[in-house]
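Trying the structure run again after the queue cleared.
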Amino acid sequence: MASYHLNVEIVSRGKANSITAVFAYTGGEKLRDDYEGKTHDRSYRQDVIYKEILLPEGAPHRFLDRQTLVNAIDASEKRSDSQMARSIKIALPNELSFEENIALTKEFVTENFIDIGMCADIAIHEGLLDESRKPINIEAVHERQNNPHAHIIVPFRTLGKDGFHKTKTQGRYMNNPSFLVMWRQRWAELQNREFIRLGLPIRVSHESNATRGITQEPTAHIGAGAMALELRDVRTDRGDVYRETMTRNKERSRENERDMARYRGHERVRDRSIERSR
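Done. Tokens:
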């Protein structure tokens, strides 16, 4: 069953974020951070199954190299509290093939960012939980074992033939919450278009469960750090919140089933009563 997820965070020096560390993590690479004077090595990661840098028309091809790109982003930002990039994470539908998910992700990124002069780095993570490492205390969590997803890093500044623009008017303008709503809606529309094309009777929505009249609670994201602890049989607050939410949702589902059974029972009694009265 398809699930919907799109989350956006700001990579900011004011939050002690390193743009190089973010690129190294999402891309599974070893990158040198000239601003902080340290190296971030995530080359051991085995779950990065696809990555690509997309550039707007006219941008120098040298920015297709990640080290060159992160160096240029850092060099373009002078302030110690600079907003440097948006980090977007989207869940990819298991119903699509690997190639279809790549094409869909690139379509979303191109129409929302590349076509207006921005660049973006895409990294797709496999999102599989190793069956041999299942912890004993997170039963509800490893019901979701196949969670392919894409990380999209979009610098705030537009990119032209001379490099990053001196101002980031476009990037700041896109801090307006209406853009987040637009991105979330568009990602749902693109997935649903593909489901229709494939003849699949499933749909996703960017709207909240409450808006859609769904009683189930949305589950909170556990995160890589907490999941790593849970995999070592160490209970975490995030894991507990996830388990508690899943337990409540299961009880709601059971209650709904009981309500439906009672309703069907009442309907049968009514039908028999009507039949006897004839």
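Residues 6-206 form a domain with the BirA Bifunctional Protein; domain 2 fold (CATH 3.30.930.30). Worth checking whether this holds up in the mutant runs.
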